[in-house]
Amino acid sequence: LITSIDLDHQHWLGEDRESIAREKAGILRxxxxxxxxxxxxxxxxxxxxxxLGNPLLCLARDFHYQLDNGSWAWxxxxxxRAGLPVPALVGAQQLQNAAGVLMVVEILGARLPxxxxxxxxxxxxxxxxxxxxxxxxxxxxxxxxxxxxAAAQRLARSLASYPASGxxxxxxxxxxxxxxxxxxxxxxxxxxxxxxxxLDVPRAASLSALVQAVRQVCAxxxxxxxxxxxxxxxxxxxxxxxxxxxxLVFGSFYTVAQLGREGL
Length: 264
Prior knowledge:
- By secondary structure, this protein is an alpha/beta fold.
- The chain has helices at 10-13, 17-24, 43-52, 93-107, 116-125, 149-161, 180-184, 207-217, 230-240, 253-263; strands at residues 35-36, 57-58, 63-68, 71-76, 80-85, 133-135, 140-144, 168-172, 193-196, 224-226, 246-250.
- The chain has a six-stranded mixed β-sheet with strand order 6-7-11-8-9-10, with helices on both faces. Strands 3-4-5 form a three-stranded antiparallel β-sheet, with helices on one face.
- α2 (17-24) runs parallel beside α3.
- The chain is globular, with a radius of gyration of 20 Å.
- The relative contact order is 0.12.
């Protein structure tokens, strides 16, 4: 199963979606079935599947999903499931991901039967720490490992749909080999104040690089606070936030791993 194909780890995978898709196609096996739930499949992935004799099953061609009044339905050429609960995981992409999973469930049905009750239970209880993980309270804390532009765009959409009345205070740290400006840009319109600090790892982006990225893509007058330690950045954001505000922690798995211990 390949759920999505976005730009990340370009040093290893390639500089464009075609190159990355060819690398991801490495999980496909000759004369076995693959599933892709990315709605925009690069040609390179289709080519590899054809070379392997792999009957690739694709979203919007071989299987489909539709959201309807708080539930959703899934269908393929040979099966359908209706009245499914929306995944507990936050983000519009989760329906796309779940649709691919249900295609895999159908393929494996003869050897690994999964009931409708089990499907519902899985959708309602799936959890992935660090992906729009919410700590509710007077000041809501949200932790997200988004570290590439595509993930940051999904984070921005999830944040826009989250019911909150106050401002967003962003605590941000990233690795030096990432597209830092590309990660920051989708959040500019929603973040009221930035709290920046370097990670304590060898690959960390410097504080000056973080500042430069925010200044490059966000409004010139957005408040920006600099710290030598990431923990201090979080504490400052929590102290500055008012009831109803959000403190958003994002930028790297390392950022969430370190501050998740402090905030969660």
